[in-house]
Each structure stands twice: as structure tokens, then as C-alpha cells.
Design goal:
- By secondary structure, this protein is α/β, with parallel strands linked by helices.
- The chain has four domains: 201 residues, GAF domain (Beta-Lactamase, 2-Layer Sandwich); 100 residues, PAS domain (Beta-Lactamase); 181 residues, Rossmann fold, CATH 3.40.50; 128 residues, Helicase, Ruva Protein, domain 3.
- 43% of the residues lie in helices and 17% in strands.
- It has a five-stranded antiparallel beta sheet, sandwiched between helices. A five-stranded antiparallel beta sheet has the order 7-6-10-9-8. A five-stranded parallel beta sheet has the order 12-13-16-11-17.
- The protein is flat and about 110 Å long.
- The chain starts with 5 loop residues before the first helix and ends in a 7-residue tail after the last helix.
Length: 648
């Protein structure tokens, strides 16, 4: 019988709880042993206990496609240096889960007895001190020899491992050579370090290549996604880029223009364009006529030099079709109106009366005033009224009077002419009333409009005309006004904060919104709606809300109304990592109404839920895990955590 080595004696003393001499074992190894003791790793462990199923391993390998593709040939070269010596070359992810193993069949069969196979975890807190988990923990290369392994079954091996870092310096995996202790040389660790360096270098090269390729794709995508015509040419006038918009506008094919002299590529009939290109002057929004096969197009041209290290190496030219630009401005100045009365959720009697009142209001052309607290859905009602009216095919233009600086509200509402004020756009700008012609203008937070502007708005409502800021021309407008406020306008009139005559002009058809606290019977309907829409948006699999949450919602006063409920639901869905939303996923302020009830702990809720589902599904763990929306391994872990293992 072979005598026990001094290191083995030190290891045995340590695992038996005896003190060991500091000089008898390397500091890194001694510290690792102490961590293993804290983590309750069994020194009698014979095999790695955590094994990923084949599907999970395939998904994990796909996640590390790049690392595997780069590492495999290097691992092959590394193995060729030690072939026939009983060695194994292994690659893991940053968590110590084995991804790939290269080695002779006999050695792999021996290693399999310890579950040293792809899909097992060799993290230090799982299998103790070893050549994968310990380098990952220390973030440094290290060789673990014989009895330095914390677990007795691994004392026959010597392992040399080093962490692999991605280009940003983050650990992305580990490389290890393991073999019989009597055949491993101290230089083995140096070979591993060299191989890891090669892998990291290749990862950097790949990231650089991907960055360059991505930049090129971004450039092409940006150029083609620009709605304006774009062309770039170098200092010699040779075209380097042109997008489909401009090529189509000029009646040319991109391939017939690229790498050609710009002046020869552009038809000579476009004299104005030729002059701009020839002079190479820096211009902004210069109006010019472009002749095409479809006729004349009037547009604005802007040119900018392309400068590299102080030298002009080319020119970028943008062409904006004026007619298209005007249509685009009108579209962007409006508000998407997808909401209709069928999208309004609720069955409360008071709420349904409000909906019916709004339906009747939509049938006419009278001004409408929506009165209600913030978050009660005034904007949705405004859209629904527009889409149910005879103006539904016209624009719906919205303006929040509280969100625009008071000095800019007039120009936003009525537009301005060129030179009206410092910074005014060349050519002027149409206002919201002009853009809403034939449709509806929604003036949200009308109670915040400055008094001096209320007079102007009253005149517009009475005359159906506007005069742009800085201009003299009177422009007729055909617009229906829907206004909204969370203020009590009648009180504001008495206090002199709102004009009485404007109030009466707007208050032709007033519709009071029902706050959520007065329609709490609708909360379950709204919760289900938000649960489905937000879960889908966030790609979450939340199946239901616990009755305790509904009870809390029913007691809360909802000062922020439906918008607050939507925000609360979105937060809860983001936080929830299971299939059910519990009170623990809610903001603490929701519990201010009845603090005496307190909160169940997460552990108690999960314990109750698991026990209930076990009884419901006759202890079928697969079905219980499915009902909870978690993996079976996660269910096992939770059952162990809550001492429920004897229930399954």
C-alpha cells in the first residue's frame, strides 16, 4: 500500500476539521478549500451533480457559437501536443458549464465516471477546487494538482486551466487540460495560457470584423432609410453613394451612377443641379427644379462638405421634395388615431353613460370639452370621438397646451411666416389649426393656456380663420375643436384665470370622465387587458394575477387613474419572474391604505402555491412546473429551498 503524500495528509486533516500548516499548501488552494467548506461542498463527491438536458445544452452551445467556433481548432492543436498521454482538453462557459471536450476515447470514458462531460457544471461552489471553477473564481490561470482538488475522487488528476476574456475584458469561459497526475508537466499551464491568448486574440479580431461589417450595414441602411434623396461624391466629382430615392427621382439606376463622374451621370437638362455641383458651395434649403421623366419636381437642396482630418474629401447632397415634405410635416404634426369606442374597456354603469354621451357628441360638429382627472383617458375619448365622426378621414392633430412654452404656443397653434422671430424657419411653418384642416384638433390641458392667447383662440373659434404669427394673410380653417382639462374651469373663470366667453364657446358639449376609484368594478377587466398587452410587449409569460393583488387594487384610490394602473401593471410584469403576479411585485405605496394587513413573504406565497398545485396535479412535478411557468429544475430548487421535497 502506497504511503500517503504530505499534501494528501494535509487535505485529510482539513476536511476533518483539523488545523493545517499554512506552509504545507499553496495559499490559493487553501483559500479555495475554505470557500468549499463555506459552500458545503462534500469532499466525498464522486461526480458533478448538475447536468443539463440535451435541449438545454444545445441552446447553451448556440449562445456560445462564436467562442466554440474559435476555440475548436485551437483545442485540436492543443490536444495534438498531448495526444496519447491520457489528457482531455475542455472548454466551459463563464459559469463553469462544460461546452466541449477533446480527448482520446479511453480517457473520456474514465472522465465520464465523474460526469466530466458537456452539460455538467464544474463551478467551484459545485464540485470544489478544480481546473475550471477555480480559475474562473480567481480570474487567473492556475494548475490544480492531485490532492489540491477538494473532492477525493478527483485526486488522480492534475488540471491546468485559465479563464477566457471577451474583447471588453469580461470572462466568457475557461480552457482546461486535465490528465493523470504523473504525466502532467509544469509547462502544461503555460501551454493553456498561450492557447487562451490565441482564443482571446481571435475574439478581438472577430469583434473588429463584425463591427466593420455592422458599420457598413448601418451606413447602407441609414442611406436607404432616409426619406430625402441623397448622393455623395468625392473631391474629383466621382459618385461614391446614392440612395434609391434620388436615383428614382432622377430616373436613373443606382448602378449607372455609382463610381461615375456626377456631372456626366446627371442629365444635362438639369442645369440648376449642374451649377450647384460645379460650384461646390455650401448651401442650405436652396430651392431648385429637377427635371425627370415624370415632369418637373421642385425641391430643396442642402450640401455639406465631407471633412477628414481637416481636409475636404467630398460632398454630401440632400434633395427634399417640397410636396412630399409638406405631406410629411402634416403627418408628423398630427397624432396617430387608432383608438375607437370599441377599444374602451369597462362595464360600470357610470362609465357606459359617459361612453354613450361621447358617441352622441361624435355625430355633430360642436366643440367638445372633456373634463376629468389626469390619466382618466381623455385622449382616448378624443381619438374615439374623431374616428366615429364625419371627419374621421381628416387629420387628428393634438397639442398639449401645458407642454409648450407660453411664448411658443401661438406659433404652434397658428403657425408663423418667415422672419417672424429670431430662429424662425425659412419659409415659415404651418400651425396646428392649419394642419388639422378638415379634421379635429385636440387641445389637451386647455386650462393651462395663457390668458393673452385665450383671446386669440376665442377669435379663431368665432371667425373660423387664423393669421400666422408675423403675417397678415387671413387663412380660413375648417376644424372641430375637442378640448380637455383636469382643472375646474368654472372655478378658474370665477378666479379670473380663464376667460368666461372662451369657456362658454368650448363648453358646448361637456363630457365628464369617470375616475377609476368610482368604477372599481372595471379593475379586473382593465387588469386582464394590461396583463395580455404588456406581457406580449415584454415577451413575458405571466398567466394570472393573484386574488390578493386584485383585493389591493380594489382598496387603492388610484389618484393617477387608468394611466397609473397601467404603469403599476407594467412594473409588476417586469419584476415578476414566474407565472403569477403577487403583492410582492407591487410598489409599496399601494399598501398605504391598509398597512395592518401586511404582506406575505415571497417564500410563503411560493410555498402555498406549490402545495396547492401539487395537490391539484396529483404530485406531477412536470405539470406543477408548467402551471408556474418555470422549468422543472427551478421547481426542484424551490422545493428544496422550502423543504417540500417529501411532497413530490
Amino acid at each position: 500500500m502506497a504511503l500517503e503524500t504530505p499534501l494528501k495528509s494535509i487535505w485529510r486533516a482539513f476536511v476533518n476539521g483539523e488545523s493545517v500548516p499554512a506552509a504545507g499548501v499553496r495559499h490559493e488552494i487553501h483559500e479555495s478549500w475554505k470557500r468549499c467548506r463555506i459552500w458545503n461542498v462534500s469532499p466525498k463527491l464522486t461526480a458533478a451533480p448538475i447536468i443539463l438536458e440535451s435541449d438545454a445544452l444545445l441552446r447553451l452551445r448556440k449562445q456560445y457559437d462564436s467562442l466554440l467556433a474559435i476555440s475548436r481548432p485551437i483545442m485540436g492543436n492543443l490536444y495534438s501536443l498531448v495526444i496519447g498521454g491520457g489528457f482531455i482538453v475542455a472548454l466551459s462557459d463563464e459559469n463553469g458549464i462544460l461546452l466541449e471536450i477533446v480527448g482520446d476515447e479511453a480517457t473520456q470514458q474514465i472522465a465520464q465516471t465523474a460526469n466530466f462531460i458537456p452539460g455538467t457544471s464544474w463551478a467551484e461552489d459545485i464540485v470544489g477546487t478544480n481546473g475550471i471553477g477555480t480559475p474562473l473564481y480567481l480570474d487567473k490561470a492556475i494548475q490544480v494538482c492531485r490532492s489540491e482538488h477538494y473532492c477525493l475522487n478527483f485526486h488522480r488528476w492534475t488540471c491546468s486551466g485559465a479563464p477566457i476574456h471577451d474583447p471588453s475584458g469580461k470572462i466568457t469561459g475557461a480552457l482546461d487540460i486535465s490528465g493523470p497526475f504523473e504525466k502532467v508537466h509544469t509547462h502544461t499551464l503555460g501551454i493553456v495560457i498561450t492557447a487562451v491568448s490565441a482564443i482571446e486574440s481571435q475574439l478581438k479580431v472577430e469583434r473588429t470584423m463584425n463591427s466593420l461589417l455592422l458599420a457598413d450595414r448601418y451606413k447602407d441602411t441609414v442611406i436607404e432609410s432616409i426619406s430625402d434623396g441623397l448622393i455623395a461624391f468625392d473631391s474629383e466629382g466621382i459618385v461614391t453613394h446614392i440612395n434609391e430615392v434620388l436615383a428614382s427621382t432622377l430616373g436613373l439606376r443606382k448602378e449607372d451612377v455609382l463610381n461615375r463622374d456626377l456631372l456626366s451621370a446627371i442629365p444635362t437638362k438639369n442645369i440648376a443641379l449642374h451649377d450647384i455641383v460645379s460650384k461646390k458651395d455650401r448651401i442650405t434649403d436652396y430651392e431648385v427644379d429637377i427635371l425627370t421623366g415624370r415632369g418637373k419636381i421642385t425641391g430643396l437642396i442642402t450640401t455639406r462638405p465631407i471633412v477628414i482630418r481637416g481636409n475636404t474629401v467630398g460632398t454630401l447632397l440632400l434633395f427634399k421634395d417640397i410636396a412630399r415634405a409638406r405631406r410629411l410635416v402634416q403627418h408628423l404634426s398630427g397624432k396617430e388615431t387608432k383608438m375607437t369606442f370599441s377599444d374602451l374597456i369597462g362595464s360600470d354603469a357610470g362609465f357606459m353613460e359617459t361612453v354613450e354621451l361621447a358617441r352622441k357628441a361624435s355625430e355633430g360638429n360642436s366643440n367638445i370639452l372633456l373634463l376629468g382627472e389626469s390619466g382618466s383617458g381623455k385622449d382616448i375619448f378624443a381619438q374615439s370621438i374623431h374616428n366615429a365622426s364625419n371627419r374621421k378621414n381628416g387629420p387628428f392633430v393634438a397639442l398639449n397646451c401645458a407642454a409648450i412654452p407660453r411664448e411658443l404656443i401661438a406659433s404652434e397653434l397658428f403657425g408663423y411666416v418667415e422672419g417672424a422671430f429670431t430662429g424662425a424657419r425659412r419659409g415659415g411653418k404651418p400651425g396646428k389649426f392649419e394642419l388639422a384642416g378638415g379634421g379635429t384638433i385636440f387641445l389637451d390641458e386647455i386650462g393651462e393656456m395663457p390668458l393673452e392667447l385665450q383671446t386669440t383662440l376665442l377669435r379663431v373659434l368665432e371667425s373660423k380663420t387664423i393669421t400666422p404669427v408675423g403675417g397678415t394673410a387671413v387663412i380660413p380653417v375648417d376644424v372641430r375643436v375637442v378640448a380637455a382639462t383636469n382643472r375646474k374651469l368654472a372655478s378658474a373663470v370665477l378666479l379670473g384665470h380663464f376667460r368666461q366667453d372662451l369657456f362658454y364657446r368650448l363648453n358646448v358639449f361637456s363630457i365628464p370622465m369617470v375616475p377609476l376609484r368610482n368604477r372599481k368594478s372595471d379593475i379586473p377587466l382593465l387588469v386582464d387587458h394590461f396583463l395580455n398587452t404588456i406581457s406580449a410587449k415584454l415577451n413575458k409569460n405571466i398567466k394570472r394575477i393573484s386574488p390578493e393583488v386584485i383585493a389591493i387594487f380594489s382598496k387603492y384610490s388610484w389618484p393617477g387613474n387608468i394611466r397609473e394602473l397601467q404603469n403599476v401593471m407594467e412594473r409588476a410584469i417586469n419584476i415578476c419572474d414566474g407565472a403569477v403576479i403577487f403583492p410582492e411585485h407591487l410598489s409599496r405605496e399601494l399598501f398605504g391604505i391598509d398597512k395592518s394587513e401586511g404582506l406575505k413573504s415571497r417564500a410563503q406565497y411560493e410555498t402555498d402555491l406549490i402545495l396547492r398545485l401539487l395537490a391539484q396535479h396529483n404530485n406531477n412535478l412536470s405539470r406543477v412546473a408548467g402551471a408556474m411557468g418555470i422549468a422543472r429544475t427551478t421547481l426542484y430548487r424551490k422545493m428544496g429551498k422550502y423543504n417540500l421535497c417529501n411532497q413530490g
